[in-house]
UniProtKB/TrEMBL annotation:
NCBIfam families: bisphos_HAL2. Mg(2+) binds at residues 68, 121, 123-124, 265. The lineage of its organism: Bacteria, Bacillati, Cyanobacteriota, Cyanophyceae, Nodosilineales. It comes from Vasconcelosia minhoensis LEGE 07310. This is 3'(2'),5'-bisphosphate nucleotidase. Transmembrane segments: none annotated. It catalyses: adenosine 3',5'-bisphosphate + H2O = AMP + phosphate; adenosine 2',5'-bisphosphate + H2O = AMP + phosphate; 3'-phosphoadenylyl sulfate + H2O = adenosine 5'-phosphosulfate + phosphate; a myo-inositol phosphate + H2O = myo-inositol + phosphate. Its EC number is 3.1.3.7. Keywords: Hydrolase, Magnesium, Metal-binding. The keyword Magnesium applies. It comes from the Bacteria. Pfam families: Inositol_P. One of its GO terms (biological process) is phosphatidylinositol phosphate biosynthetic process. One of its GO terms (molecular function) is inositol monophosphate phosphatase activity. PROSITE patterns: IMP_1, IMP_2.
Length: 318
């Protein structure tokens, strides 16, 4: 099958990173360090990025990686202690890790968008991770602007009687989910609109990451009467792909009208939903454009659905 090697390496890398995140949560109450944009980052974000970038670079040395974090701050003297912690967590997954190699591996993620690249969010939903709620490790391969492979680990997500879910999709080959702790893969499909128990929508926990008032109004216009499920991270894409909800709305926040969505906050989730039979566009109906830069400069807002209700949602947005 096409992209077999990419898929296997991506699964190994993301699983290692998710284990690291779970280990951090078990051993400590992670502290948030503030980035320049004042958003939080933790030792687990850095550790997860080191694990994934090191694995990818070894197997695909020519592929750029566009990842959320970088090690510039972490290399400063003031950060010696957190760097030591990052290095120890990474060592549990990759024994040869040292503070020096770890910062180098993290900076493999400073690549640029090009004809073929990987994009990584080492922890998507850092605020969720800090709150002991949902978070995800999200990795995707993009070629000529088209997402080809996506692997999304959601360690805190429960579906059926499994907690800790790994979503995997390859373009044209469908989407599956499997227990993060190992076990067999099961093919997934979005829910049909007649499935009333799942005829509901998901949105962010953080009100500043969307426009909850408008999101409720649009969901209602599409016939959804149930309250929203609020969850952090791309676990929302997983919920739509696995048929737990029929719609995920992320409309521009009135507090940050000029915000542009980042590619790593969407790429893995988009292919998982599309391969499960769903549809993803921006709020004007355009496909998300992953060919430009780390930001989705040609898109505003994101609409993710089971496909069936997509046009109705877009019409309500006009
Ligand atoms: N203003 C604004 N608008 C839209 N999106 C924003 C904004 N600010 C931040 N972010 C990005 O949101 C990412 C996580 O958002 P989620 O909505 O998935 O999770 S959460 O419910 O907010 O925790 C989060 O990803 P992580 O940084 O990886 O956690 C951010 O990249
Ligand atoms: Mg962040
Ligand atoms: Mg993110
Ligand atoms: Mg992140």
């Amino acid at each position: 099958m096409a992209y077999e090697k990419e898929k296997e390496i991506a699964i190994a890398a993301v699983t290692g990173a998710a284990l690291l995140c779970q280990e951090v949560r078990r051993q400590m109450v992670p502290e948030a360090m503030a980035k320049q944009d004042r958003s939080p980052v933790t030792v687990a974000d850095f550790g997860a990025q080191a694990v994934v970038c090191k694995t990818l670079r070894e197997l695909f040395p020519n592929d750029p990686i566009v990842a959320e974090e970088d090690a510039a701050e972490l290399k400063t003297a003031a950060m010696a202690k957190p760097l030591q912690q990052v290095s120890q967590y990474v060592q549990a997954i990759i024994p040869e890790a040292t503070p020096e190699t770890v910062t180098r591996w993290i900076d493999y993620g400073n690549g640029s968008v090009g004809p073929r690249y990987w994009t990584l969010d080492p922890i998507d939903g850092t605020k969720g991770f800090l709150r002991n709620d949902q978070y995800a490790v999200a990795l995707a391969l993009v070629e000529a602007g088209e997402i080809k492979v996506g692997v999304l680990a959601c360690p805190a997500l429960t579906i059926g009687d499994t907690t800790g879910i790994l979503f995997i999709a390859v373009r044209g080959a469908g989407a599956v989910m499997q227990p993060l702790s190992g076990g067999s893969a099961q093919s997934i499909q979005v829910a049909a609109s007649i499935d009333w128990a799942h005829f509901r929508f998901v949105e962010s926990v953080e009100s500043g990451h969307g426009n909850q008032e408008q999101q409720s109004a649009i969901a209602q216009a599409a016939g959804i009467t149930a309250d929203s499920l609020r969850m952090d991270s791309q676990a929302k894409y997983g919920a739509v792909a696995a048929g737990e909800a029929v719609l995920y709305l992320r409309l521009p926040s009135p507090k940050s009208p000029d915000y542009r969505e980042k590619i790593w906050d969407h790429a893995a989730g988009v292919i998982v939903v599309e391969e499960a039979g769903g549809r993803v566009t921006d709020m004007t109906g355009r496909p998300l454009d992953f060919s430009q830069s780390a930001k989705l400069v040609n898109n505003r807002g994101v609409v993710v659905s089971n496909g069936e209700i997509h046009d109705k949602v877009l019409a309500a947005l006009q």
